[in-house]
Amino acid sequence: MKCPSCNKDNDPENSYCISCGALISEEMPVLREEISHLRRLIELMQERLVILERTQGISGPRPELGPTPPETLTPAQTAAPPAGPVPADLAVTPPAPPKSRTPRAIEREWEQILGGSWLARIGVLAIIIGVGFFLKYAFDQNWLGPTARVILGVVAGLIMIGGGHYWGKKYPTFAQAISGGGIALLYLSVFAAYTMFGLVDFYPAVALLLLISISSALLALRYNSMALAIISIIGAFVAPFVLSVATGGASGTGGVIEASQSFWLLVYVMVVDLGVLWLSTFRKWRWFTLMALAGSLIVFGVWYNRFGDEVSLLTSMGSLTIIFLIFVAATTLYHIIWRRVSRDFDYILMAVNATSYFGISYGLMWNDLSEWLGGFSLLMALFYSGLAYIFIKRGAVNVRLAFFALGITLLFLTIAIPVQLNDTAWTTIAWAAQGTILLWLSLKLRMPLLRITSYIVFTVTFIRLLFFDTTVSLRDFTPVLNERFLAFIFGIVAMYLAGYLLWRERESLWPREQTAWSVYPIFIGIANFFTLWLLSTEVWDFFTKQLSTTTDWTARDGLRSARNLSLTGLWAGYAVILLVIGITRRLRLVRLSALGLLVIPIVKVFVYDVFALEQVYRIIAFIGLGILLLTSAYLYQRHRKAIVGFFTKE
Question: Which of 170, 360, 411, 633 is 20 to 30 A away from residue 249, measured at CA?
């Protein structure tokens, strides 16, 4: 049986193609034939309906020819079958039930996959390693000169590619494996001819490497094989390390490549990456791109570990930036050129590339350019904002990528502010803004994982507000006009906004996020807690500053009483405001929270203030509390019909 995707032969009992992995189904031709019969039957019914209208004088709307969605059909709307026998050529034969695969068939399928695919790939890998050890042995025994070794590697690589072409149609998996091995040997031979033996100059070596990269990409496109592309890219990045082992290198590539040659290793990596870029514009092989990115970073790491102290920072950052830009293009050009919808793996590739470049760059610039790290973060934010603009200009299909690029922009902006300004208030503000925007993006794009990220950012913001932004210097303290108030007010606004967004989109949340104690009441509750905390600390610090500058004991007692009374009035007044909101808006949870908060000033007045306050403040405390409680009771009485379900579910 032939595969409908790659047209390769497979066992009749296979469910999946052993060459390309596509689903093999014998029912598809039957289903297509059934659809054709049904369309012809509808046409025949329409013709008979026209004849009936002409002979009986019946007129009515004629159904349009075309498929009708299953959900729009009802028993009453279903047309009656035409009178008379149905022609034999229109008779629909129900499809035979699918054959169940026997355990023996499944066992045979796995045997073909393992025996036909992975054995060939492992065999090619073994051959490449064996060739490396053979080169080492020939080098030790002085059997072959440098030219002979390079020619031998080139000939072996071409023979393997030719064999892949010869067996391409009959044994596609085997052909792809040996073709990938041939590409790897060509990479190794050219690299050795330039860096080890000096047989070719720089420009011919680069041209040959570029030619090999293009050839491997063309072969992968010809066979439509990501496996061949992966084999080729692994061979390209393994070649320098195999050469190191083959010539007795002690550490990485340091035993082979001298400092004067170190730059060409980076050029080699860039040339290979350009081949990856070219291939990625035609095929959406994400694993291939990810492995190429990982190989590039590993080779760069080995290079910097050996030569980082011997080259300038400009060389290191310049080469790393070129690699970064190549993979920015490799992860985005496919969507920009062909306007294809992005998937989760595309976002992972973009995030890995941005994170790797940013982290490695920070390490490179930490000692010499630490004062510019904030500016570098801002530059990264501007770059990804420009990328988001390009996505939006290319059409609606790239909107998700544009939003994701904006998310990366926000992340870099978040990092840039505290790094450059070293200001805790602005750090908190940036993180609160980041959490809010990530939450909005998760709801806009229907991406729950992004919402989890926003929850994590908000959690970090909560911790900063509680443990890092609560204290201020009383020497220069001014109510409202201080750093703490700035950090708290922006954080509180962000939490209220997040709670509102979650409430508005509550129908699209996970089931656990839609319960009575779901996420959005938590945000609203925490925002109220921080609001009351902020107002209380502002009042407390205001009177505490006055106490620190007053030496009159009588005045100090009055300030303490005023501070306690102000806190009591603040808590009671805040509770009454919440109670009014809960009653007028019929929010049972808000009413319950208000009553719980109202208990605190009541207990404080009767247990603490009655002894701690002076006579005048004590009178004000009790009378003021009584007025607030009477007002609350009046509101309950007036709106009793609206809160009938106070102790039951509304």
Answer: 360
